[in-house]
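Appendix B, record 7
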Amino acid sequence: MAEQTDPERDPRWDAVRAAARRRVPTPPGLVERVLRAVARGGRTAVAVPGDDGGLRITEQTVVRLAGTIAAGRAPAGVRVSAVAVEDAVVQVLVSVRFGVVADEAAEALRREITAELSRQLGVAIAVNVHVVDVHPD
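Structure tokens (predicted):
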């Protein structure tokens, strides 16, 4: 039987521990743009076409719906930090627990949000999920 080592003491984990201490890079200005969109309060309307001519809903409604979906469908170890609509694209900022494969978790959440928004609104809405931080627990 192979001997198990304690990751806290095993020097082979030094690179992983060092990576956990570094901030995950985000696209320049993204956090500021999303926070500005959140502060704006979603007063801009989003057109949702339909068989009877469609309707217009506020960005705030799309943000709340996307946020509710994201919170309910986030994979284990993923926390939703902020949701906003910018240039007709839903932007979701998340943090992931140390050890979670960030790009896979973000893509899984993006697919879930996109599918459920499409199902509920009857129209495809672009969604981006950005990992902006790593948390220890």
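Remarks on this record: The chain has four helices and five strands. The first strand starts at residue 45 and ends at 48.
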